[in-house]
Amino acid sequence: MRGWTSQRRGQRQDWKGIEPCTRRTSEATSATDDAGSAGTRATAGTQILARRAGLARLARVISSRVCGALLFVSFTATCDEFLIEYSIEASQSYDDNINLSPNSLSASGTIIALPLKFIRRSERTSYELEAEASAHRYDLDAFNSDNQYLAGEVSHALGQGDASLTASFTRDTTRDSEFLDTGVVGPSASRREKANVLGLGSWMLNEKHGVIARLEYSDVAYESLRLNDYEYATSYVGWRFQATEQIQWSLQAGATRFVNDSPVQSLESQGLSTQGGFKASLNERLTLSVQGGWINFDNELESLTSTASSDSDSASSYLLDSSLNYRAERAQWKVALTRRPTPSGFGVLLNTSRLDANYSYRASQRLTLELKAKAGMQESQDPSIGRDRDFINGSARMAYKFDPHWSLAASYVYRWQDSEVFSGQADSNAAFISLQYEPLAKTWSR
Questions:
Q1: What's the per-residue H, E or C state across 46-110?
Q2: Disulfide: which of 49, 105, 151, 189 matches 175 by Cβ 3.0-4.6 Å?
């Protein structure tokens, strides 16, 4: 459920009603001129003497600019913009295989979601706080849950670059998280908690060359006996070259670390990677990005049973991160093809190849349509572990805004997987009907 609301929150960046800094600057400029005129009149007597000495022009400039500068500082020093928005959404759902297993369980239920967003922006710095609470109630009590999501972001524009720091905490269940991770939901919705920190930075050394950096850390904990807690960290530093206004090249070196918390067998994987690629604006609406590389892992495996033993090996894989984006006035779509190592609740890293396709169309001011598709293959770095999986996810959603504050949406989701864990295939069909109340965002500036 949070996937739909998160997407809406990401799209609503409307700052109507906020008095922009540019307007304040204009007012300050106007005030500067008025203050200059007042200063000029106030010094009329002294200007008579100054004129005789040939200093009238200097007197006018000094009196007007000093008064105007003081007023300009007072108008622009506190130019902050604020936004608060929230919504309430109630959904009724039905899923004919909610646990996505050959031993299928069908369930219908009600979902209530309350997302909230607060943003504060100044000329160079932005603060954003995002939260959501949701309650899930099904006719199968084992899948009931109360989920929470909280995220905060600080971003700052530097003289020749920018930097941002994002921290988030997600408290959901295996029913929500595991389709793209392990595919294991289980006979009940087991609790999962994830803490994540992400730092990004870039700095242009000159008009053509710059440096980039990224650091991300995740800590995931399960209450399921079938899945293992883990920690995952990845980082890179790189070089950026702006060849033309339309083409940008990049080259980067990275490091990755994965540690599981299994009571039976612990694993620590450390990897080093290199990647390179480009991003090109093909035209005003179409953007292409392609990046590829290689990663090598050293794995340390230790058995924690009574017959304790340890072993080490190495593995390698190619990396791919590519996307094609199109954006028009009413329609936009994106196709992405990726391959990268992904952490999993199995307690191992999986080499995941994935194709994502998204399409959205705004038929009118009231009616919108969204189509999404995901297809992927997961392979264990060690074939003897037996965690290979293929999966497909497709969804369609139509929303109609019948009132400035109210909208009605209908959606359909299809999921399929073929997993070695289940020794077979499983699929599910789910339908949702949603009613959303969204008051106008509260905006102000000071």
A1: HHHHHHHCCCHHHHHHHHHHHHHHHHHHHHHCCCCEEEEEECEEEEEEEECCCCCCCCCCCEEEE
A2: 189
| Tokens read off for 278 | 């480009």
Backbone angles phi, psi at 337, to 5 degrees: -125, 120
Cα distance between residue 285 and residue 331, in whole Å: 11
pLDDT bucket at 308, cuts 50 / 70 / 90: low
pLDDT at 424: 83
Model-wide pTM > 0.85: no
DSSP, res 29: H
- Give the relative orientation of helices 21-42 and 44-52 as an angle to the nearest 10 degrees: 70
Residue (of 346, 337, 299) closest to 318 by Cα position: 337
Model confidence at 43: pLDDT above 70 = no
Which residues make Cβ contacts (< 8 Å) with residue 91, sequence separation at least 6?
A: 1, 110, 111, 112, 113, 432, 433, 434, 435
- pLDDT category, 115, cuts 50, 70, 90? very high
Q: Is 210:204 a contact under the CB 8 Å cutoff?
A: yes
Residue 35's Cβ-count burial label (10 Å; 0-12, 13-18, 19+) is buried
Conformational region of residue 183, where left means phi above 0, alpha means psi within -120 to 50, and beta covers everything else: left
Q: How high is the mean pLDDT of the chain?
A: 85
Q: What is the pLDDT of residues 331-389, one digit of tens each?
A: 999 999 999 999 999 989 999 999 999 999 999 999 999 999 999 999 988 777 778 99
Query: Which among 100, 96, 89 is positioned nearest to 175, based on CA atoms?
Result: 100
- 286-303 and 309-327 strand pairing: antiparallel
Q: Where do the H-state alpha helices sit in 106-192?
A: 174-177
